[in-house]
Specification:
44% helix; Rossmann fold; 276 residues; 7 helices; seven-stranded parallel beta sheet; single chain; alpha/beta
């Protein structure tokens, strides 16, 4: 039995992961900004589930969530940074306050959680940190520049973190979901009120009123949750896990395009060295 602390459990992938972890017989700190939204999960698993209020932007709540989880279960074996939201705007349309809030949640919130759990994980020389990114952490679509920026930042930080943690026996895993049938494209997706007509055929196509994919995504959150557990429990976990057939196709396409571009310009690239 291990203990998981999962952020953003009120709906979607986080909720399904909490349920799956508990069904597997593990302990879980099930967190949400409003703990009432996860009360029924705790009612179903009263011995192994703990509901906690947690807004990852609030450093006091971060510290208290870690403290209460450790007090109840003894140690945190797996931290899952799942809390986050989307944001759509052309780069020119975006409002600074909205972008800062996006980073405070999607990136700095994850950093705060990691910094809160690492001291005890390091002492024990064991644990796993799972950061839920997105295929947007590999390539950005028009209208999602700043959401992608938070995920690029999360993946860059995670890449360095895994190298820092490897000698200490702590896993770092990035999950890159494609489109899953959650509320991410519904209430969890915010967008700017600005609407510049020149972007109608690019970023404008992905505004909520023009995007009809919500509710039709082929990704199943329950299956995704089971896949995450398998990845975490694997003897040799991947650093990045593309989750969903669309994620595999998208990431593969991005890697192929980057390789082609690198090869195309290598001849000029190498001319910038000092002569030998």
């Amino acid at each position: 039995m291990s203990t998981w602390l999962i952020t953003g459990c009120s709906s979607g992938l986080g909720r399904q992961l909490a349920l799956a972890v508990l069904k597997h017989g593990h302990n879980a700190a099930v967190t949400a900004r409003d703990p009432k939204t996860v009360a029924e999960i705790v009612e179903a698993f009263p011995e192994t589930a703990l509901a906690l209020p947690l807004d990852v932007r609030n450093r006091d709540q971060v510290a208290e969530a870690v403290r209460q989880t450790e007090a109840r279960f003894g140690a945190i074996d797996v931290l899952v940074n799942n809390a986050g939201h989307g944001y759509r705007a052309a780069v020119e349309e975006a409002k600074e306050a909205e972008v800062r809030d996006l980073f405070d949640t999607n990136f700095f919130g994850a950093v705060a959680m990691i910094q809160a759990v690492l001291p005890r994980m390091r002492t024990r020389r064991a644990g796993a940190i799972v950061n839920v990114s997105s295929i947007a952490g590999r390539g950005a679509a028009p209208g999602s520049a700043f959401y992608a920026a938070t995920k690029f930042a999360l993946e860059g930080m995670s890449d360095a973190l895994r190298k820092e943690m490897k000698p200490l026996g702590i896993k770092v895993i990035v999950i890159e979901p494609g489109a899953f049938r959650t509320d991410f494209a519904g209430r969890s997706l915010l967008q700017t009120q600005a609407n510049i007509s020149d972007y109608a055929q690019t970023a404008g196509q992905r505004r909520k009123e023009n995007d009809h994919s919500h509710g039709t995504q082929q990704g199943d959150p329950a299956r995704g949750a089971e896949a995450i557990i398998r990845v975490v429990e694997a003897p040799k976990s991947p650093f990045r896990f593309a989750m969903g057939s669309d994620a595999v196709a998208f990431v593969g396409g991005e890697l192929d395009a980057q390789r082609r571009e690198l090869d195309e310009w290598t001849e000029l690239s190498v001319t910038t060295d000092f002569p030998t």
